[in-house]
């Protein structure tokens, strides 16, 4: 994160995650009723060709209005959803093309924290079990083959023999291995009965976890220590340690999610994500559902954990004020594509894309000096991702849409013409209303600031509308006012420095 970046063990510009042309379409309308009614299946183009890198050790913010595809991007790149197209490389390997073993490793190395700490924790499980679940699924703790599991010891106290001690090879799952050796204390006592000599071995630490058996071979005594039911206990212990690390208490492992507040639950979600020692975490709006007073604490925790464990974050947010203090770089998404990507300071202080500008202008300003700044509000709603606009997706709302070269027209007037075209193409105007108002008067009302030849063409189109001929009206306007913003998608592939400004004004 920004303030602590110099202390981090980052390897500079190395990409840990490389997303290229990622697409995720949801199939919609393919149900039985749709077929009975003859409705065609359509696809929701939630993510429609997105490319960016997440560099090792950084926090990359992914921002944009609700519905622009941020969560889908995060979930698809983790392979929690099946991608429609594109590639994601994690540490150089294509995530969509991993064998079972590599996939299991990826599942450990890349984690997610969900937005809603209420629905993302199973209410029937204790928080200890929730945090430990990933460890259980992945067969952790793992045995370390370098840990010595056999030793010889000389037994005094009347038994003058060399005793061979061997322990189960996964002993290190039970006791903490130090420098490659699992230490278990074994004491051997001699019992002399009538007919036989019997020895007992006992283990003086972790006795609850270990069982021991003794064999009396001809001359040597063999002691075997076996591990019983240990992994669960270790996982529970680690779950408790993780709860402490995220600011809760280890003795809360047996409590249930409903016993915790929202902020505490999100801490449990973070502990769960940490349990497998990941390198990369998708944080999907991790503080959006929390009280403002708690948000800063959770953000600070995420910041500390990033430093402590060398984590890389993809931080999804719609709240730009949060992003500014957390992220090293920011990717701005609009309707399934990246509009702009760059270092956080540059995005905030000198945005290049009209959408980024509009998004920043819509953020309430804390500083009084900035409160009087002219606010160009983001007009209209995000168009449907079922049928996104051609060319630049933001062109239907863009306050800087580019007029054709051979036309002299004020920006506001051109914006109004473009809006009128949208209405005509969608056949949203009422021909009676246009006719009654008179096309020229209607134009003066709807497209003020237009004059001369341009005004004549708009009038001509409105006359066609008055006759109910929307096709001719649309064509008349298209012939005159077609813009590069609708004919050509802007280049949104990251440049050499990783930045993106997907806008024809910056071609
Ligand atoms: N399972 C699904 N089936 C069909 N459409 C979906 C599904 N999930 C999401 N969508 C649609 O995909 C688009 C992108 O949704 P997504 O949740 O990724 O956006 P977002 O930017 O994360 O928004 P939010 O901040 O509201 O979560 C939206 O139009 C949404 O309605």
Automatic annotation (TrEMBL):
User: ABC transporter domain: from which residue to which, for each copy?
Assistant: 17-360
Which molecular-function annotations from GO does this UniProt entry contain?
A: ATP binding; ATP hydrolysis activity
Spell out the CDD domains in the cross-references: ABC_NikE_OppD_transporters
One Gene Ontology term from the biological process aspect of the record:
transmembrane transport
EC class: hydrolase
Q: Write down the EC number.
A: 3.6.3.19
Concerning Gene3D superfamilies, the annotation shows: P-loop containing nucleotide triphosphate hydrolases (3.40.50.300)
Provide the alphabetized UniProt keywords. Answer: ATP-binding, Hydrolase, Nucleotide-binding, Transport
Report the domain of life of the source organism: Archaea
Question: Which family does this protein fall into?
Answer: Belongs to the ABC transporter superfamily.
- Please report the name of this protein according to its UniProt entry: Trehalose/maltose import ATP-binding protein MalK
Organism for this UniProt entry:
Halolamina pelagica
For this protein's source organism, the top of the classification is:
Archaea, Methanobacteriati, Methanobacteriota, Stenosarchaea group, Halobacteria
């Amino acid at each position: 994160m920004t303030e602590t970046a110099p202390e981090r063990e980052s390897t500079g510009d190395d990409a840990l995650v490389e997303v290229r042309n990622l697409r995720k379409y949801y199939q919609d309308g393919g149900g039985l009723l749709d077929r009975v009614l003859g409705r065609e299946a359509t696809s929701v183009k939630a993510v429609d060709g997105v490319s960016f890198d997440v560099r090792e050790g950084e926090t990359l913010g992914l921002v944009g209005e609700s519905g622009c595809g941020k969560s889908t991007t995060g979930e698809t790149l983790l392979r929690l959803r099946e991608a429609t197209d594109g590639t994601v490389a994690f540490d150089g390997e294509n995530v969509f093309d991993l064998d079972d073993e590599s996939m299991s490793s990826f599942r450990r190395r890349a984690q997610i924290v969900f937005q809603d700490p209420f629905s993302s924790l199973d209410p029937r499980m204790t928080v200890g079990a929730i945090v430990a679940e990933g460890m259980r699924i992945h067969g952790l703790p793992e045995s370390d083959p370098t840990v010595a599991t056999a030793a010889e010891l000389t037994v005094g106290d009347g038994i003058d023999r060399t005793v061979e001690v061997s322990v189960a090879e996964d002993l290190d799952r039970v006791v903490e291995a130090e420098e490659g050796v699992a230490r278990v204390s074994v004491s051997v006592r001699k019992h002399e009965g009538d007919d036989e000599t019997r020895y007992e071995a006992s283990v003086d630490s972790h006795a609850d976890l270990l069982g021991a058996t003794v064999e009396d071979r001809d001359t040597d005594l063999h002691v075997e220590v076996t591990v019983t039911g240990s992994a669960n206990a270790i996982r529970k212990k680690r779950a408790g340690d993780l709860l402490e690390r995220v600011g809760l208490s280890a003795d809360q492992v047996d409590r249930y999610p409903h016993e915790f507040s929202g902020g505490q639950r999100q801490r449990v979600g973070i502990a769960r994500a940490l349990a497998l020692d990941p390198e990369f975490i998708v944080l999907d709006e991790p503080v959006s559902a929390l009280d403002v007073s708690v948000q800063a604490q959770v953000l600070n925790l995420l910041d500390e954990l990033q430093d402590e464990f060398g984590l890389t974050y993809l931080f999804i947010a719609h709240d730009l004020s949060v992003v500014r203090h957390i992220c090293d770089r920011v990717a701005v998404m609009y309707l399934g594509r990246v509009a702009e990507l760059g270092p956080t300071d540059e995005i905030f202080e000198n945005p290049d894309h009209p959408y980024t500008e509009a998004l920043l202008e819509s953020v309430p300003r804390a500083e009084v000096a900035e409160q009087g700044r002219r606010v160009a509000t983001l007009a209209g709603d995000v168009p449907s991702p079922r049928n996104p606009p051609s060319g630049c997706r933001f062109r239907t709302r863009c306050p800087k849409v580019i007029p054709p070269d051979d036309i002299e027209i004020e920006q506001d007037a051109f914006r109004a013409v473009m809006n009128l075209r949208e209405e005509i193409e969608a056949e949203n105007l009422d021909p009676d209303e246009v006719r009654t108002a008179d096309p020229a008067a209607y134009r003066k009302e709807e497209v003020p600031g237009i004059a001369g030849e341009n005004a004549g063409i708009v009038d001509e189109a409105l006359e066609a509308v008055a006759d109910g001929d929307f096709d001719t009206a649309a064509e008349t306007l298209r012939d005159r006012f077609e813009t590069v913003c609708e004919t050509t998608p802007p280049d949104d592939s990251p440049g050499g420095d990783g930045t993106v400004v997907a806008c024809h004004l910056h071609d």
